[in-house]
Amino acid sequence: MWRVRPSTIGGSASVPGDKSIAHRALMLAGLARGTSVIQNLPSGEDVRSTASCMGRLGVVLDLQSGSARLDSAGELRAPEQELNAGNSGTTMRLLAGMLAGQTFSSRLTGDASLRRRPMGRVVDPLRQMGALIATRDGCAPLDIAGSNLHGITYTLPVASAQVKSAVLLAGLFATGTTTVIEIVPARDHTERMLTALGLNVRRHGMSVQVERGTPPNGFELTVPGDISSAAFLLAAAAVTDGAVSLDSIGLNPTRTAILSVLERMGASVTAAIEREETGEPRGSIAVSGRIERPICLCAEDVPGLVDELPLIALLATQVAGESVIEGAAELRVKEADRIAAVTQELQVLGADIEERPDGWRIHGKRPLRGRKVQSHGDHRLAMMLAVAGACAQGETTIEGAEAADVSFPGFASVFASLGAAIDED
Description:
Layout: E1 2-5, E2 10-13, H1 19-31, E3 33-39, H2 45-56, E4 60-64, E5 67-73, E6 83-84, H3 89-100, E7 106-109, H4 112-115, H5 120-128, E8 132-136, E9 139-145, E10 149-150, E11 153-155, H6 161-171, E12 174-175, E13 177-181, H7 189-196, E14 201-204, E15 207-211, E16 220-222, H8 227-239, E17 243-250, H9 257-264, E18 268-277, E19 280-288, E20 296-297, H10 309-317, E21 321-325, H11 338-348, E22 352-356, E23 359-364, E24 372-374, H12 379-391, E25 396-399, H13 411-417, E26 421-424
Parallel strand pairs: 2-17, 3-16, 6-7, 10-12, 11-13, 20-21, 24-25
Antiparallel strand pairs: 1-25, 1-26, 3-5, 4-5, 7-9, 8-9, 13-15, 14-15, 17-19, 18-19, 21-23, 22-23
Helix pairs in contact: 1-2, 1-3, 1-7, 3-6, 5-6, 8-12
């Protein structure tokens, strides 16, 4: 449980490594031949789930605080136990792609929340490639029988980096060419990393192609700071008239839309790319000033902001005028139904927010008043509510705040270091 009181957020801090990049680095290190070393590995539960699965697939892992050393023969081995992805949809969906073309069978499962999340959108294209996958009414556990895959051309019906990545990873074990066509660009970490490791990946406009290739050699990678985690600190500065600066943050252009949103809403934002590693740009971000304008976001905006939308909904409650966020129906099948949960908890705090099938209509500016709220077991809701508590009157009590450990262990301590009046019980 967290207790948060009104605060002005300012200063410098570090955030955990980007878990999207960390998942992919651990998986590709498992496919590589030789030793790989990954630094600044986030310690959140999702990444630990991926590491555990790779260990059960025959990869020798030495996990230290903030780093991992992996030794692999360049091929995976049949697991003796089922592979538990915990609460991580990324782990389950990407591993489904990697495992579909293996010579052995495996079972992918997860916690109760993950087993309720739909897996059809990733299973369908893998089956088109020849994968043999059984589900439980379209959900996990996934029973995957090793099979011979063939390349396909697949147009994503909705923007999804997880589905795109699963198909591309399956394509590494398929005959012919595997092509994924996007309607709206989604995160491109997988193709960037595959390209950096020397695999045969080509990008043509809105399509990505991959072909079967030999395993890459072991590699070294320092994971940049996670901009989706950084967003909570940056937004907290912008909603409390503070100033926050962060270094060594991933600045992949498919992930930086939150900076544009903060700027459009009136905050002062600067970002500078300082270097690139394994295809990923990284650098520094600074945000200051106070947001003051409403925002309208549509379906085309969602892929670049999917993790930050609950936070943006909060910000919209604190500016005069009407904000609309739509085209985000996929938020209903995250760790929680984020559309319903955000609406419920912000209304408890006094916000004028209306739930819609695919987003929210928000009328600002309504002062928030501290109350008891719930995280719904969702890490991003827990942190969003902490930001809400910093700009609300009185004390806000957040039950289930430990959910934040999924992506940002130690969030409360970092938030406190920036001036937040936050206590942990």
